[in-house]
């Protein structure tokens, strides 16, 4: 029973990311581009400034060396990262890829160690994100440590092979997303940090958000992230080619975390680190809940963390996330432009390539600033004029000055789903039309709709004509209805898959392409099996506040099994001096911190370390009790009873077919 608890606090449930999947995908049979897709993609070429090759120059500028081989996992068996599968991305775009996305995929293909400017280096393309290295007076300042220890270690080794092997005097985490800190133990050791040999800087509230941000809905986020990143899709002209602001997320590496030693708490804070003056600028609630940018005063380098990119970023991530504040995000970019614009020689970020020259930097910052502000303001303008989310998304057209700017194109976020995010931020899921207030759920709705439309065969016959005419959005919608009415209808699944696939081939956003192609693959083959679940990350588990562990149980409480049950359990954690009362009644599990109940069914006394080893499955509650690591008062069976009421959750639920249709 305890296994259930621990299994669900594994990496996937923690961070909703895709690096635990280790096996190749089921074999989909992707088809070729249809005539309508060929035509749509051909029309992209004359509509955008493809002759401007500045980004290609910038992405290769200062190249020193790269590593030819894949990065392996700790056991030497598993490939954590390799750019080799993307070697096919050469020459003109194939018919199955939007040429604008093909261009972006080629740009994200340049990888290795690059010299940015005097004393500033970047390792790009050895992970989804960048590692920036600044050479200080006697050592190195490392900004962001990639997603996993393996890629971070490979990155720093690549640097050392080409530059002097100096000690790391400081690490900076720019923000709370795992691709910016998860590899920290690949570059520094916890012992050295504890011994004060180096400092770790991070924005205020870093640990709260780094650990807790995505944990409660982590299982769903993980499953959905497979759609966003296309992690389990085959690589290729008919498969995954990019993720938008990087290639993908590493697979099966070691996710680590060392708590920061120095938090930046003021909006602007200047620190001298080994002779290098850095002004930190806090930008909370923009791309991440806790984030900061860096300006290097002597070096005239501005590091915008992830608040500027060579793509439109997400106001809403398709994997599922709280929506971000476009107004605030834009205002931070504006402040950076005002404060640093005329004294910056090179702008870097923690994804993709730099921008050189103050004039170009100012232009870049203005476009990034206005791209988010435009979407925010125009979406609000339209929602105040009665437009609903899909109507806003359809109506909103970026102005030509932004639409023709490569860095403002939507490869990761899109104007469409970002506009819907703005609506959601202010007005939520309800469009105020009472016909939509309590409409039938998907299966009921689909069955009745298909019946009203004359039955599945009639719908499919008409949809085939629409498919020939290139009306793929509509075909995908109606085939979704037929599949939800009858998931065993193979014709509907095939035609639905074909439509999604053509939409994927036409998509400019990597995130949309991945989502469409994943949907097509799963309509054809069923839900993707995820055979390789990596071990939990002990660093992450240790960092979860105990109250959150109880909430993770609470959100798995099966209301039917808990019906009519009551229970009070006292918890005492001796090493951290924490006490909790856990209370079950009314099918709700609540806890009170700092208190023990006078009358409890059971009481458990243990250390936080024991809880951690249970959560990472090194032991179980019964074994820990037997070993004397948990002292029990009252009825020890109560815990088993409680855990028996918790749902098993696994990240393999259906998305493009009803939940009831289990394989
Ligand atoms: Zn990132």
Which terms would index this structure?
663 residues; alpha+beta; 8-stranded mixed sheet; 6-stranded mixed sheet; 25 helices; 21 strands; globular; disordered N terminus; binds zinc ion
Approximately how much beta-strand content do the residues carry?
A: 5-15%
Whole-number radius of gyration?
Answer: 26 Å
Ligand list? zinc ion
Q: Count the strands?
A: 21
Tell me, briefly, the overall form: globular
Physical arrangement of strands within the biggest beta sheet: 1-4-5-6-7-8-9-10
Separate helix tally: 25
Low-confidence stretches: 1-25
Helix content: 25-40%
Largest sheet properties: 8 strands, mixed
Structure description:
The structure is a single chain. The protein is an alpha+beta fold. It is 38% helix and 15% strand. The strands form four sheets. It has an eight-stranded mixed beta sheet with strand order 1-4-5-6-7-8-9-10, covered by helices on one side. It has a six-stranded mixed beta sheet with strand order 11-12-13-14-15-16, with helices on one face. The chain has a five-stranded mixed beta sheet with strand order 19-18-17-20-21. α9 crosses α19 (510-525), α10 packs antiparallel against α11 (358-383) and α11 (358-383) crosses α14. The protein is globular. Residues 1-25 have low confidence and may be disordered. Zinc ion is lined by residues 129, 177, 179-180, 306, 351.
Write the layout of secondary structure elements.
Blueprint: H1 2-7, H2 11-15, H3 35-47, H4 54-60, E1 63-65, E2 71-72, E3 79-81, H5 99-107, E4 112-117, E5 120-124, E6 131-135, E7 140-143, H6 149-162, E8 168-172, H7 190-194, E9 199-203, H8 206-212, H9 218-229, E10 262-264, E11 268-273, E12 276-282, E13 292-296, E14 301-303, H10 326-340, E15 346-348, E16 355-356, H11 358-383, H12 389-395, H13 400-403, H14 415-427, H15 442-452, H16 456-468, H17 472-485, H18 490-506, H19 510-525, H20 538-543, H21 546-554, H22 559-562, E17 567-573, E18 578-585, E19 588-593, E20 602-606, H23 608-615, H24 621-626, E21 631-634, H25 637-643
Parallel strand pairs: 7-8, 8-9, 9-10, 14-15, 17-20
Antiparallel strand pairs: 1-4, 2-3, 4-5, 5-6, 6-7, 11-12, 12-13, 13-14, 15-16, 17-18, 18-19, 20-21
Helix pairs in contact: 3-18, 9-19, 10-11, 11-14, 12-14, 15-17, 16-17, 16-18, 17-18, 18-19
The chain binds zinc ion.
Zinc ion is lined by residues 129, 177, 179-180, 306, 351.
């Amino acid at each position: 029973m305890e296994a259930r608890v621990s299994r669900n606090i594994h990496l996937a449930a923690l961070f909703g990311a895709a690096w635990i999947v280790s096996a190749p995908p089921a074999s989909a049979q992707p088809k070729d581009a249809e005539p309508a897709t060929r035509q749509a993609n051909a029309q992209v070429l004359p509509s955008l400034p493809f002759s401007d090759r500045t980004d290609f120059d910038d992405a290769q500028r200062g190249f020193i060396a790269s590593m030819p081989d894949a990065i392996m996992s700790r056991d030497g068996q598993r490939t954590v990262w390799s750019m080799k599968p993307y070697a096919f991305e050469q020459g003109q775009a194939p018919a199955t890829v939007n040429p604008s996305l093909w261009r972006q995929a080629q740009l994200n293909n340049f990888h290795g160690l690059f010299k940015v400017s005097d004393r500033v280096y970047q390792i790009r393309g050895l992970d989804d994100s960048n590692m920036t290295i600044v050479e200080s007076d006697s050592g190195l300042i490392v900004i962001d440590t990639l997603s996993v220890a393996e890629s971070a270690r490979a990155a720093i080794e690549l640097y050392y092979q080409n530059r002097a092997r100096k000690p790391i005097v400081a690490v900076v985490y720019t923000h709370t997303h795992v691709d910016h800190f998860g590899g920290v133990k690949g570059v520094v050791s916890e012992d050295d940090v504890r011994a004060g040999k180096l400092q770790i800087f991070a924005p205020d509230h870093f640990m709260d958000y780094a650990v807790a941000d995505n944990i409660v809905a982590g299982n769903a986020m993980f499953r959905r992230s497979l759609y966003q990143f296309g992690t389990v899709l085959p690589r290729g002209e008919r498969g995954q080619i990019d993720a938008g602001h990087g290639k993908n997320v590493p697979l099966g590496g070691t996710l680590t975390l060392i708590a920061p030693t120095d938090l930046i708490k003021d909006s602007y804070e200047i620190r001298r680190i080994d002779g290098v003056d850095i002004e930190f600028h806090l930008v909370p609630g923009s791309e991440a809940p806790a984030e900061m940018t860096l300006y290097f005063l002597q070096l005239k380098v501005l590091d915008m963390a992830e608040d500027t990119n060579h793509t439109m970023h997400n106001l809403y991530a398709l994997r599922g996330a709280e929506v971000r504040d476009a107004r605030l995000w834009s205002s931070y970019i504006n402040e950076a432009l005002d404060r640093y614009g005329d004294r910056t020689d090179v702008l870097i970020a923690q994804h993709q390539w730099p921008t050189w020259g103050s004039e170009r930097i100012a232009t870049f910052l203005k476009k990034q600033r206005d791209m988010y502000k435009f979407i925010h303001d125009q979406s609000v303008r339209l929602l105040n004029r009665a437009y609903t989310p899909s109507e806003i998304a359809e109506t909103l057209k970026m102005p030509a000055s932004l639409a023709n700017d490569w860095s403002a194109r939507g490869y990761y976020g899109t104007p469409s789903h970002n506009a819907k995010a703005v609506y959601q931020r202010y007005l939520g899921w309800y469009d105020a039309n009472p016909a939509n207030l309590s409409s039938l759920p998907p299966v009921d709705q689909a069955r009745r709709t298909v019946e009203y439309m004359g039955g599945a065969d009639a719908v499919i016959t008409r949809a085939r004509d629409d498919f020939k005419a290139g009306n793929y959005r509509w075909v995908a919608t109606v085939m979704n209805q037929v599949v939800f009415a009858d998931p065993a209808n193979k014709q509907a699944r095939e035609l639905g898959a074909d439509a999604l696939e053509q939409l994927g081939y036409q998509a400019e956003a990597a995130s949309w392409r991945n989502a469409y192609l994943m949907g097509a693959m799963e309509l054809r083959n069923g839900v993707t099996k995820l055979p390789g679940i990596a071990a939990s990350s002990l660093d992450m588990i240790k960092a979860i506040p105990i109250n959150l562990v109880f909430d993770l149980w609470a959100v798995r409480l099966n209301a039917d099994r808990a019906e009519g049950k009551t229970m009070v359990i006292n918890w005492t954690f001796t090493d951290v001096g924490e006490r909790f009362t856990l209370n079950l009644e009314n099918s709700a599990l609540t806890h009170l911190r700092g208190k023990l109940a006078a009358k409890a069914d059971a009481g458990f006394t243990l250390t936080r370390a024991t809880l951690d080893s249970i959560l990472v499955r090194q032991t179980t509650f019964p074994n820990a009790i037997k070993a004397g690591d948990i002292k029990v008062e009252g009825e020890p069976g109560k815990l088993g009873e409680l855990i028996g009421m918790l749902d098993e959750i696994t990240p393999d639920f259906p998305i493009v077919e009803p939940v009831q249709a289990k394989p």
